[in-house]
Each structure stands twice: as structure tokens, then as C-alpha cells.
Amino acid sequence: MIRFFIKNGNNSLKFDAPTDELFDHLGSIGIFEDIPITCSEKIYLDFYPTDDNDKIAKIVCDRLLPEDRISDVNSLCARLDGQWQITDEEFENALEENDVRSALNIKAAYEELREELRQTNDLSM
Predict the structure, then answer these.
(1) Per-residue pLDDT reduced to its tens digit, 16-37
(2) What is the domain range of residue 33?
(3) What is the pTM of this model?
(4) N or C: lower Cβ tally within 10 Å for the chain?
């Protein structure tokens, strides 16, 4: 869903989120803590959709904030990856309606949208 490129000193790493080995990946380049998804004096970090046609991943990447933690983004990706019962338009509209930003807020908005759609489907049966 989202590809990360991280450079820490002379060590670099590229991996796709979601992953069950997040902290193993980070540890392999000398990072032993949860980090924000922004560059720092010591760490270079970039992220982008793994597939140019993945509109949901693009929406998420555009709405993440520099202070989002990499573990929160990974958790969001795990929740979103392959779970689509909503369209990218519905997802984007739900986020735009309240100007939702940050991994944790996007995840909460997604859960709320899924619940609304589930209730709508239950009522129509």
C-alpha cells in the first residue's frame, strides 16, 4: 500500500507497509524506536504509494502529518489494505468533509464510514 524509504547514516531500507516486521526493519538500520514520518537531522524518510494506480494509498499519503508515527501509519495500512468495501470517492469525501488528517484520525474516519455503510446495508435488507 505505502512504500517507505528510510536512510539512517550510511544504512538505508525500503519496505512496504503494512508489515508485521516493522521494528525488525527499523532495527536493521539502527533505529530502535518508533519514529515520526518526517526527516530529521539524522534520519531521511520518504513514503509514497506502492502502486501509482492505488488511489486510496495516494489519499492516505496526502493526508498524513509530519508528526504521525511510523507504527500508526503501518497500523492504518494494515486496516485499509485489501479491506475495501467502499470506493475511493466515498473514502476521499469522508476525509474531506471534516478535513481529516493524520494516521490515527484517518483510521477512525475509515472505521466510522464502514460502520455507517454497514448500518445502511442492514437497514436496506
Answers:
(1) 999 999 999 999 999 999 999 9
(2) 2-124
(3) 0.89
(4) C
Q: Which long-range contacts (CB under 8 A, 24 or more apart) does 112-116 make?
A: 113/86, 114/85, 114/86
Contact between 41 and 53 under an 8 Å Cβ cutoff? The reply is no
Provide the strand spans (E) within the chain. 2-8, 11-17, 43-49
**Residue appearing with cell numbers 524509504:** 5
C-alpha cell belonging to residue 75: 497500523
Question: Do 36 and 47 meet the contact criterion of CB atoms below 8 Å apart?
Answer: no
Task: Give the span between the Cα atoms of 78 and 75, in whole angstroms.
Answer: 5
Q: For residue 78, which of 36, 115, 48, 107 has the smallest C-alpha distance?
A: 107
What is the domain count for the chain?
1
Write out the DSSP string of 69-116.
BHHHHHHHHHHHTT--SS-HHHHHHHHHHTT--SHHHHHHHHHHHHHH
